[in-house]
Amino acid sequence: MSLSVIILAAGQGTRMRSALPKVLHPLGGSPLLQHVIHTAKQLQPSGIHVVYGHGGEQVRDALAHENVNWVLQDQQLGTGHAVDQAMPSVPDDDTLLILYGDVPLIRPETLARLVAQARGGSLSVLTATLDNPFGYGRMIRDSNGKLTGIVEQKDASEEQLAIREINSGFLAAPAASLRGWLNQLDNSNAQGEYYLTDVIAMAAAQGIPVDSASADDEYEILGVNDRVQLATLERIYQRRQAEQLMRNGATLADPARLDVRGEVTTGNDCYIDINAVFEGTVTLGERVRIGPNCCIKNATIGDDVQVFANCVIEDGVIGKLSRIGPFARIRPETELAEQVHVGNFVEIKKSRIATGSKVNHLSYIGDTHMGAGVNVGAGTITCNYDGAYKHLTEIGDNVFIGSDTQLVAPVRVGDGATIGAGSTITRDVPPEKLVLSRSPQQTRSGWKRPVKKTD
Ligand code: UD1
Ligand code: CA
Known about the structure:
Layout: E1 3-9, E2 26-27, E3 30-31, H1 32-41, E4 47-53, H2 57-62, E5 69-73, H3 79-86, E6 95-100, H4 108-119, E7 123-129, E8 138-141, E9 147-151, H5 158-161, E10 165-174, H6 175-183, H7 198-205, E11 210-214, H8 227-247, E12 250-252, E13 258-266, E14 270-272, E15 276-284, E16 289-290, E17 295-297, E18 300-301, E19 306-307, E20 312-314, E21 316-318, E22 323-324, E23 328-330, E24 334-336, E25 341-344, E26 346-349, E27 352-353, E28 358-361, E29 364-366, E30 368-370, E31 375-376, E32 381-383, E33 393-395, E34 400-401, E35 406-408, E36 411-413, E37 418-419, E38 424-425, E39 434-435
Parallel strand pairs: 1-4, 1-6, 4-5, 7-11, 12-14, 13-15, 14-16, 15-17, 15-18, 16-19, 17-20, 18-21, 19-22, 20-23, 21-24, 22-25, 23-26, 24-27, 25-28, 26-29, 27-30, 28-31, 30-33, 31-34, 32-35, 33-36, 34-37, 35-38, 37-39
Antiparallel strand pairs: 2-3, 6-10, 7-10, 8-9
The protein binds uridine-diphosphate-N-acetylglucosamine and calcium ion.
């Protein structure tokens, strides 16, 4: 029996006080709604229908790459009305599951339980028992404990307000049944809305079994209404990422001081010090050590690499046994082979550096192909930009570049060449030769340093 999923995402989100629609606010680096779509996909539904609101084109545009059916709910007349907008696209034979674009931490395992109950012919609701049920719909049960309805906070009597079992909003049902109930909804209630929750009483009245299920973790049903709740969910999400890394064999200096905004894969025995921020797709090999305060985005880092404190790495490949930093910046399109050393205050951009080469201090290497076993002295700069175009610097194997050298690209340095310190290299350097461009040192006798007059 196939599954249809409807995700409600038409709410205004006014309490965010934001130009950005609520469901586009990021959690772990991607929009709230993206998380919900991702979770829905894990249930392998035949269709995902996202109900978005008037002016929500921004939402559609941001997630245009997702293979979902966008359904406009022009006016927000209530959750029942919202679901109804998508019903024309839902086949009668399907089981239907309702999700929320602003409740991002729900787990597929929990939803699978709801779906299984609905496949058995029930209307199934995800509930929770809270110490403070304020604001939620309350679950109404008869003397036998059977669910007979849901009453919204604003419609509830004193007695009903004391009920601590609440409606999470998540619900699954046979699509044909739900369609019938939605057609009978009215809005004669405190909020003048078409309440999805009214279908529970309809099912119960028809003798259709109403089941409830609960989530394993309380946070699964938490929604985002303002930025305080967003921050709470962000920390829960990050804790989950940290636990996954630890279970996969990484040691974290402090699981509370790690942020994953994407996907991180780690080999065994990695060590990640405090304040690491990972973005995009990051792959760490075995025994990689990441020092404190590093930002690493879309990078592949080989076995036994050490990244020391305060490094920024973006779109790079770092070969095994390499050492980076402290205070190094690896910019996009950089490929370091094995055992490359990049030291403090070194910036590397769009460059390939072969095995065992070292750029240890205060350098800029951009648009460069560097051979193996090269030693780049402190303060060496590739002058890759002429104000209009970028040019390539090619450095052979086993080159020794003296400190404070400028390599004015395009330029080539042959294998085994040595460049004297302080040189400005504007022409190709032949292999195996010593080349230097340096004004001769002068000694002047009889010269006196100026002295300040004293009275
Ligand atoms: C709803 C439930 C309540 C439950 C609570 C859990 C109803 C009537 N009530 O209440 O029992 O305890 O969620 O958080 O369903 N939405 C639309 N279009 C609309 C109205 C809402 O897309 O016309 C979306 C919102 O964006 C939101 C979700 O539906 O994601 C829930 O709407 P909201 O107004 O927050 O419902 P609650 O009053 O919190
Ligand atoms: Ca809500």
